[in-house]
Amino acid sequence: MKRLRLIVLMLLGGLALSGCYNESDSREHVLKIYNWADYIGEGVLEDFQQYYKEHTGKSVRIVYQTFDINEIMLTKIERGHEDFDVVCPSEYIIERMLRKKLLLPIDTVFINSPNYMHNVAPYIQGQIDRLGVPGELPARRYAVCYMWGTAGLLYNKKYLKESDVDSWDCLWNRRYAGKILMKDSYRDSYGTALLYANRKKLAEGSVNVADLMNDYSPAAMDTVERYLKLLKPNVAGWEADFGKEMMTKEKAWINMTWSGDAQWAIDEAAEVGVDLGYVVPKEGSNVWYDGWVIPKYAGNIEAASYFINFMCRPDIALRNMEATGYVSSVASAMILEAAVDETADYVDASYFFGPEASHVRLDNTQYPDKSVIDRCAMIRDFGEKTVDVLEIWSRVKGDNLNSGIVILIFVVVGGLCVFQIRHRYILYKRRSLQHRRHRRRRVSRTS
């Protein structure tokens, strides 16, 4: 969910794209999109306008805004009743929005246009359906996956072999202290800590990845906090986006990150002669999904459905992949043909593309082998436990201090304040005395 942070630069080319619109504009001619920054290909929005005009006869002006945090987007919709037509939340927020009935079904019948949503991989559709609410329509009717990927370890091959980072154990290894960067993501860190703490049970098969990463029992939370505090001394920084640059410049050796960011860093580093690799540790990891949804307060449902459909068109999916470094949920033959890389290792991508992709050369950062996917799972919404998990995260990073330290700080600060007040009072008295003496001298001279 998760995520480059640079703002997309859109070429206007005579077509109006803006961050605001006149209230007098008819909403049927305005499409408001709320997306992650740098998460769409250049010119795609303009091409959608043309597509929409051709298939509906209607012109549409796009209002495009970006966000950096899922929860900020959700607050605007849930509490502010913002009338965004299309937004792109991560899977756990989609689950929360479904539970709170904040989403509208997406239309799948279009005038003179195929339903491109059928191009989404069945594997991905099945994962999205797991987010649904019992008794309601399948989740795929409310959310269409846009991009997906894994969480893993980006590493510098100059200093480390793949065998050095094939386990989450390397994050807790003192040998790499000060050379490790962690994503500033409480969800990924929570799951990673539980997987590492239970690595022996995972190897034995007595527990599975999905159950572990979604365990919010008091015992699990205690374990997470203990292990993350043990990890903290090794961490050079908790990063939202600077990790890619730090790895490219060899300022760090290991970066716990998302596959899309890893691919971007690998490509950029190669241009300056730095060899980076990416691996999903053997204990397993998180598979994440970002998807298009239509909020209940949307003002242009028709254009929103057309837009989501357009984004699933294979040629558009390819453009978005090339622009972002992330992997589209679209699994058409065009995508597979474009993804084949004769320099890459063979992988089994049949889970995504179908049987014809059981032995193909694909970049395993973007398209992990089936054996990797089989040991990964989706982190679900924390629900009411979110507050507890955030408190753990705050304590781990040092945002909150325990009561003893707080009291000590107050005592020290209080003592300093008393000292400063006393010191200033003494100076004041001295200056007052000097001033009175000076006045007496002046009076005696004039008399």
Structural summary, described in words:
The protein has 447 residues and is α/β, with parallel strands linked by helices. It has a domain at 17-148 and 289-336: Periplasmic binding protein-like II (D-Maltodextrin-Binding Protein, domain 2), CATH 3.40.190.10. 42% of the residues lie in helices and 16% in strands. It contains 17 helices and 15 strands. It has helices at residues 44-56, 70-78, 91-99, 122-129, 186-197, 199-204, 209-213, 218-231, 243-248, 259-271, 301-311, 314-324, 333-339, 350-353, 370-373, 386-397, 403-446; strands spanning 17-18, 30-36, 61-67, 86-87, 103-104, 143-156, 180-183, 235-239, 254-258, 276-279, 285-295, 327-328, 346-347, 360-361, 376-377. The strands form three sheets. Strands 5, 6, 7, 8, 9, 10, 11, 12 and 15 form a nine-stranded mixed β-sheet that branches. Strands 1-3-2-4 form a four-stranded parallel β-sheet. A two-stranded antiparallel ribbon has the order 13-14. Helix 5 packs across helix 8 (218-231) and helix 8 runs parallel beside helix 16 (386-397). It is globular and about 65 Å long. The protein starts with 16 loop residues before the first strand and ends with a helix.
Structural key phrases:
alpha/beta, 447 residues, 17 helices, single chain, disordered N terminus, nine-stranded mixed beta sheet
